[in-house]
Amino acid sequence: MNASVQHESKTHQAVLRVQGISKSFGDNHVLKDISFDMQKGEVVSLLGPSGCGKSTLLRCINWLEIPDAGHIRLNSERMGYAVNGTKVGDAQLSKMRSKIGMVFQHFALWPHMTVLENVMASPLHVQKRNRKEVEQEARAVLKRVGLEDKINMLPSRLSGGQKQRVGIARALAMKPDILLFDEPTSALDPMLVGEVLEVMRDLAAEGSTMVIVTHEMKFARQVSSRIIFMDSGHIIENRSPEEFFDNPQTDKAKTFLHSVQYK
Amino acid sequence: MNLSDFQIIYDERDSVITGIQTTLSLVLVSGLASVLFGLILTPLFFSKVGWVRGSIEWLCSAMRCSPFLLFVYVIYFGLPSYGINFDKYTSGLVAMIVYHSAYMAIIFRSAWVDIPAEILEAGTAYGFRGATLIRRIIGPLLLMRAIPMVGNQWIQIVKDSAYLGIISVFDITAAFNSIQSIYFNPFVCFIVAGLLYWVFCLLIELIVNLVARYARERIA
């Protein structure tokens, strides 16, 4: 009884609810009826072979791709739709998106802005907050990712690892409810991966709600509260990292873990 | 060709200076105005409304594929029959601005298409949209990416201005044409005129190179 009450209240406060998401590109069914919930402070790693739909799922969450079917709810607000069920306009969508921080594989920093400007841009021009306050917070998040001495540099002058940390700072500056990471270290030199993972590890420890698409298995195991394993557009495992890595239930997951040489 | 030919040009410096001033003002005004109007027109290529996209495509195509001289004739000789009268300088200027704005719009469109998709997507993901997206992210990037092509177009503008002598705008070409018709020294006159255009273009190249250097580390 007690447990079920707890469960109820947990479900109620889900930060993210993904309900029956399907998405096709032409004849290619990339996502097939994907559902899962995320509680506040949870870190979920999305794993699976390339082409299994992980990135598309991430992009559906913030409506960069519009799913063919299903709902995304962020703090019970339905992405892309108003309360009465009608599609929302660009203005409302932009407001919803600014509660989601996204970190891109190839950084996607705005190259004409300095590091500080990149981090300040959305809070200032989209959220329309006070400049002084925004700048203070931007300096603080840049310090948090260890880049306080690079604030006036252009992205083109930074290393890949530094760029990605700016990317993370940019996401944090919006004070998002959830952070999405789309293969944040895949484009980095192996020796630069560590500094980015370290920042992400800190964020996880501080209780950020994060969805991470990654190929860094050790990292996924260490930081995740849950692993979602996908194959051909389906979720086929959704379990704790220990269970998933030590005792995968499906052949697909076994094959996958074998192929990425996870030991 | 001898020294006295240059002496003649020096003696006629008043009309040479008038010619230079005219060309300079034509080039400056139409060079800047065409960039401005080009920037205003460019978003129309990406409009969600079909007929807006269609219209701008056709307008720019028509401009780009009509000879500049013919277009000048239309403005100066054609429009008065519909009650629209410009003096020769204004006609020339209007023709330059309209014609080259179309080119600039096409240049900016290609620069826009060329911006890496992920950079724009990051804008969308972070809530930028419509005018804010254009002003803060697309605009600065496409301007900087377009600099070399805009420089080329400015050089084209310098050279196209020489056509305006045909409607008696007293530019550099017209000034030297009038001098050689009095003193019969066409070779020296036209060579000197050509050198002046070259100096104009060198100045443009200088400016463009400076700005391009600034832009290079800011575009990707």
Automatic annotation (TrEMBL), chain A:
<dbReference type="InterPro" id="IPR027417">
    <property type="entry name" value="P-loop_NTPase"/>
</dbReference>
<keyword id="KW-0813">Transport</keyword>
<dbReference type="Pfam" id="PF00005">
    <property type="entry name" value="ABC_tran"/>
</dbReference>
<dbReference type="InterPro" id="IPR030679">
    <property type="entry name" value="ABC_ATPase_HisP-typ"/>
</dbReference>
<dbReference type="InterPro" id="IPR017871">
    <property type="entry name" value="ABC_transporter-like_CS"/>
</dbReference>
<keyword id="KW-1003">Cell membrane</keyword>
<comment type="similarity">
    <text>Belongs to the ABC transporter superfamily.</text>
</comment>
<dbReference type="GO" id="GO:0005524">
    <property type="term" value="F:ATP binding"/>
</dbReference>
<keyword id="KW-0067">ATP-binding</keyword>
<dbReference type="GO" id="GO:0005886">
    <property type="term" value="C:plasma membrane"/>
</dbReference>
<protein>
    <submittedName>
        <fullName>Amino acid ABC transporter ATP-binding protein, PAAT family</fullName>
    </submittedName>
</protein>
<dbReference type="InterPro" id="IPR003439">
    <property type="entry name" value="ABC_transporter-like_ATP-bd"/>
</dbReference>
<dbReference type="InterPro" id="IPR003593">
    <property type="entry name" value="AAA+_ATPase"/>
</dbReference>
<keyword id="KW-0029">Amino-acid transport</keyword>
<keyword id="KW-0472">Membrane</keyword>
<keyword id="KW-0547">Nucleotide-binding</keyword>
<dbReference type="GO" id="GO:0016887">
    <property type="term" value="F:ATP hydrolysis activity"/>
</dbReference>
<dbReference type="GO" id="GO:0015424">
    <property type="term" value="F:ABC-type amino acid transporter activity"/>
</dbReference>
<dbReference type="InterPro" id="IPR050086">
    <property type="entry name" value="MetN_ABC_transporter-like"/>
</dbReference>
<feature type="domain" description="ABC transporter">
    <location>
        <begin position="16"/>
        <end position="257"/>
    </location>
</feature>
From TrEMBL, chain B:
<feature type="transmembrane region" description="Helical">
    <location>
        <begin position="190"/>
        <end position="212"/>
    </location>
</feature>
<keyword id="KW-1133">Transmembrane helix</keyword>
<keyword id="KW-0812">Transmembrane</keyword>
<keyword id="KW-0029">Amino-acid transport</keyword>
<dbReference type="InterPro" id="IPR000515">
    <property type="entry name" value="MetI-like"/>
</dbReference>
<keyword id="KW-0472">Membrane</keyword>
<keyword id="KW-1003">Cell membrane</keyword>
<protein>
    <submittedName>
        <fullName>Amino acid ABC transporter membrane protein 2, PAAT family</fullName>
    </submittedName>
</protein>
<dbReference type="GO" id="GO:0022857">
    <property type="term" value="F:transmembrane transporter activity"/>
</dbReference>
<dbReference type="GO" id="GO:0043190">
    <property type="term" value="C:ATP-binding cassette (ABC) transporter complex"/>
</dbReference>
<feature type="transmembrane region" description="Helical">
    <location>
        <begin position="89"/>
        <end position="108"/>
    </location>
</feature>
<dbReference type="Pfam" id="PF00528">
    <property type="entry name" value="BPD_transp_1"/>
</dbReference>
<dbReference type="GO" id="GO:0006865">
    <property type="term" value="P:amino acid transport"/>
</dbReference>
<comment type="similarity">
    <text>Belongs to the binding-protein-dependent transport system permease family. HisMQ subfamily.</text>
</comment>
<dbReference type="InterPro" id="IPR043429">
    <property type="entry name" value="ArtM/GltK/GlnP/TcyL/YhdX-like"/>
</dbReference>
<feature type="transmembrane region" description="Helical">
    <location>
        <begin position="20"/>
        <end position="46"/>
    </location>
</feature>
<feature type="transmembrane region" description="Helical">
    <location>
        <begin position="162"/>
        <end position="184"/>
    </location>
</feature>
<dbReference type="InterPro" id="IPR010065">
    <property type="entry name" value="AA_ABC_transptr_permease_3TM"/>
</dbReference>
<feature type="transmembrane region" description="Helical">
    <location>
        <begin position="58"/>
        <end position="77"/>
    </location>
</feature>
<dbReference type="InterPro" id="IPR035906">
    <property type="entry name" value="MetI-like_sf"/>
</dbReference>
<feature type="domain" description="ABC transmembrane type-1">
    <location>
        <begin position="20"/>
        <end position="208"/>
    </location>
</feature>
<keyword id="KW-0813">Transport</keyword>
